Amino acid sequence: MDRRSFAIRALGLAGCLALGLSGADASAQTTAAVEVRVGETVSFALPRLVQIIDTEDHSIATMVVTPDGQARVTGVAVGRTRIVGRDIAQLPLIFPVTVVPARP
User: Fold this and answer.
1) Which are the contacts of 54, defined by CB distance < 8 A and separation ≥ 6?
2) Chain Cα centroid distance, residue 87
3) Which of 9-18, 34-43, 82-91 has the lowest mean pLDDT?
């Protein structure tokens, strides 16, 4: 093994070690929380182009994605759920959702 090959492998190993020690984990990528009232809808821009995305519990919240990349979340019942999906590179997207009571 020549010096250049050794240096490239050593740098690659050091980079992997640094990511492991920093706690970076693509499978646990959580984004900003969403809060919505029962009977109301909130919209927000998705950070990336999604392949598949939906709420885990439709009895708490439902969602649709508009053609312009906006997510619209509607509160159905008070509670907590998550929006879970994958982008076109198969990286996960997770949005915690809290549905609060409707305004009196």
Assistant:
1) 63, 83, 84, 85
2) 9
3) 9-18
Give per-residue pLDDT as tens, 1-36: 566 665 556 555 444 444 444 344 444 456 688 999
What is the identity of the amino acid at 89? A
Q: Closest Cα to residue 13, out of 23, 25, 24, 5? A: 5
Phi, psi torsion values for 18, nearest 5 degrees: -65, -40
- Cα distance from N-terminal residue to C-terminal residue, the chain: 74
Q: Between the CA of residue 90 and those of 5, 27, 54, what are the distances in Å?
A: 31, 10, 15
Domains within the chain, CATH numbers bracketed: 26-100 (2.60.40.1080)
Give Rg (Cα) of the chain: 20
Taking the model in full, what pTM does it have? 0.68
Q: How big is the CA angle at 86 (ends 80 and 89), to the nearest 5 degrees?
A: 160
Most distant CA atoms of the chain, gap in Å: 74
Q: Is the dihedral of CA 24, 27, 28, 30 positive or negative?
A: positive
